[in-house]
Amino acid sequence: METSVNHLDEEGLKETIRSLLNSDKVKLWLEPYSTADGSKSARPSELIKKYSETLKVSETLVEETLEQLRRHSTLKFTAKRKYQETDVATIYVRFSQGSNTSPNSSGRSQENYIETSLHTPVNEVKEIIGNLFKVAPEKLKLISLGKCLSENWTLNDYNVKNLGKILAICLSDDEEKLMAKDEKVDPEQDEKIEKTKKATEMMINDDVDDWYNLTVADQNGKSFDMPVEERKALAVAMMLHEKGKTCMKKKNFGLALVYLLEADLEFSKCTSQLLELVDNYALLCLDIIWCYFIMQQVDSLPDAERRLLITEERLVKSYGPEMERVQRVRGSCSQEVAVMMKLHLMQGVLSFYKREHHKAKKFLDKAEEELKSLQVDKEDMMTIMEIGYSEQEARLALRFCKGNVSQAIEHIMTKKQERRKIEEQEKEEKYRKKMAKVLGKTSSGQLVDASLYKNLTSMGFDKGATLQALKKHDNNFMLAIEFLQTNPNLRLPDPEAKKKKLKITDEMISQLVSLGFDADVSRATLHHFEGNLEEATAELFNLSGKIPKEWLDKVAKKVTSAAAAGGVDGNGSTDESNSAASAASGSASNMDTEEMKKFLEEEIIDGFNDEQDTDYLDLNVDDENNVLQEFKAKLASILDH
Fold first, then answer.
1. How far apart are CA 515 and CA 534, in angstroms?
2. Are 311 and 286 in contact (CB under 8 A)?
3. pTM score, two decimals?
4. What is the pLDDT, as a whole number, of residue 360?
5. Phi, psi at residue 96, to the nearest 5°?
6. Using H for helix, E for strand and C for coil, what is the string for 399-428?
7. Any idea what the Cα angle at residue 537 is, between residues 535 and 538, rounded to 5°?
């Protein structure tokens, strides 16, 4: 009985025949299989018949595979000799065009090779590959050895060798635009990646640190401190990972892989101890492996194997050998079962490609058992949905409660209450942090109490007068009320009113200096009050000229970092011409704080907050089930023979 190509994977067949050739010491690049110039010689009829009978596949399939291997070995032989003589390397390139790829599709990838020096910069390599595949170089992202290649580095910097392999991903969904001549290239995808990194870095800088606070905890819920640089790297990595997962949901696996490998680079800046305490890096590796598989990157199997080992090790440390840590903390481990199912599925696939068939069967059987535990009864889902809950809520709850409908409904209600409570707490905390910036500090240097301010203004007192009362009396509620009642007609500027930024001039500083205040202190205070001379003067008198150190540090930092670019004058003010240029530019480097905040909120934070806890628990396991059944069938066909 002959096995069809559907049951015996093409790459698996190629590897099997390659192994047989090595055992038989057959050299396809030499006579009698190839001529001196590398052309095909006589048909190896005996070899074809022998392997066809051994593998139970058609002679036609064996002949086609042998010819592919012969061409590859001939090219390899020629490339080695050329590199020794000329130092010109041959690099295999797999070009992936188009974003929507399903697990069982053949995809739209092409293979070819380029010849270049290993000291060639990546941007020039992009031009060579772009010319080869008739696409704009700006649209290409190059990946090799599990890393995205940066344009300013060379192939040698990334340890790419002669006969190395590069995956070239075209980030555009519109093939016609890419193929059209003289078409203007839209760098939107590259720009989004840069904006994501830039915005996330800004998020954890001092200027916006109180706007979004990142904390890290292990599976026991214990949080720990991190150095600033590691906190920055972790924040960027997690946000890039979220963007990658969003692309995966949209079946845009090419762009997803770029985001995920960028996230991997940021994770590498964190200490190994940190990554061992949480499961984030393990989940990232698992997503990268899934993208490799969907995009049929068999060449990336060594990197996939390395990542699978890391994933398994980190998950065991995070969850416990039998997931007992998760069970103890959460009371259920259904989310982690989904993660382990995907891990075992990928381990089974990798073992299959390595021809470790019995090992593959063990992993696939385990994945099948775990996948069954994630299945939910459709009638039970409909029962819960009829009450008014969403499909996702029903599926999540049933998985969490192992199919018990009444417990699932109670679980949904509890989770909703918890979410509302958290939202209220976050809203209150956001208000407190926002008002801390607006209200400033009292005469003794402590922050004005936002809750006292809110209570007093809700009683009808003037906002500006209320702020003055709390500052003057160091947050003493009773003394503040007495002050306001004694001065019922006092009206001061509304501290919550949006203020127009004014340019800080030398004349303003001179005026404050003439009142007896230090020049640097005057400049920092004007900067804090965004150029409002009246408010700066009042605050300097209120504080007797002793302003908080962070006001001085903030101005010094801004002047130092921006003066070199010509965007800030000596007083810490933004030059108007440069501001106009920045506003006109859409690049990530010129986005101001407000633009970055908006980008973060719209593009990243919303999805991050809403989905991070349910991504794996709410897996649509159809794709995973299809892959499982496909490889079980392939495996059964091999083991039966």
1. 13
2. yes
3. 0.63
4. 92
5. -115, 115
6. HHCCCCHHHHHHHHHHHHHHHHHHHHHHHH
7. 65
What is the Cα Rg of the chain in Å? 32
Contact (Cβ atoms closer than 8 angstroms) between residue 559 and residue 572: yes
Residue 338: closest CA among 295, 370, 294? 370
pLDDT at 125: 94
The answer to whether 112 and 98 have CB atoms below 8 angstroms apart is: no
Alpha-helical runs (H) found in 24-56: 45-55
CA of 405: how far to CAs of 45, 351, 384, 411, 507, in Å? 64, 38, 7, 10, 73
Q: Smallest Cα–Cα separation from 137: which of 153, 148, 126?
A: 126
> Which residues is 142 bridged to in the sheet?
168
Contacts of 517 (CB under 8 A, 6+ apart): 525, 540, 545
> 431 is written with which tokens?
């208000």
Which of 50-54, 343-347, 422-426 has the weakest average pLDDT? 422-426
Give the Cα separation of 471 and 480 in Å (integer).
9
Please give the backbone phi and psi of residue 216, each rounded to the nearest 5 degrees, phi first.
Answer: -120, 135
- The span from the CA of 184 to the CA of 470, in Å, is 59
pLDDT of residue 611: 44
Task: Decide if pLDDT at 365 tops 90.
Answer: yes
Lookup: tokens for 12: 């698996």
Structure tokens at 550: 């962070």
Give residue 189's pLDDT band: very low, low, confident or very high (50, 70, 90).
low
Other CB atoms within 10 Å distance of the CB of residue 212:
17
Cis geometry, peptide bond prior to residue 187 (ω within 30 degrees of 0): no
In this predicted model, which residue has the larger pLDDT, 322 or 541? 541
How many residues would you count in the chain? 641
Residue 323 pLDDT class (50, 70, 90 cuts):
low
User: What is the residue whose two structure tokens read 């209600």?
Assistant: 413
What is the Cα 24 distance to its own chain's centre? 47
- What is 538-552 written as a DSSP string? HHHHHTTT---HHHH
Burial 605-627 (b: 16+ CB within 10 A, else e): bebbeeeeeebbbbbebeebbeb
Tell me which residue of 7, 628, 13, 16 sits closest to 348, measured CA to CA.
628
pLDDT at 161: 92
For residue 126, pLDDT beyond 90: yes
Nearest Cα to 158, choosing from 147, 171, 142, 174? 147
* Tokens read off for 450: 């936002």
**CA 65, CA 80: separation in Å to the nearest integer?**
23
- DSSP helix/strand/coil, 461: coil
Taking Cα atoms as reference points, which of 524, 492, 493, 497 lies closest to residue 508? 524
Reading the block at residue 268, the tokens are 């590498």
Distance separating alpha carbons of residues 391 and 398, to the nearest angstrom: 11
Mark out the alpha helices in 459-575 (DSSP H runs).
463-472, 477-486, 506-513, 519-528, 533-542, 549-563
Q: Which strands, in side-by-side order, build the sheet including 89-97?
A: 109-116, 89-97, 165-170, 140-144, 147-148
Q: How many other β-carbons are positioned within 10 Å of the β-carbon of residue 232? A: 21
Contacts with 47 (C-beta within 8 Å, 6 or more apart), sequence order = 26, 66
Instruction: Report pLDDT for 406.
Output: 92
Q: Are 261 and 146 in contact (CB under 8 A)?
A: yes
Distance CA 640, CA 335 (A): 35
The three-state secondary structure class of 287 is helix
What DSSP state is assigned to residue 2?
P
Between vectors from CA 584 to CA 582 and to CA 588, what angle results, nearest 5°?
A: 55
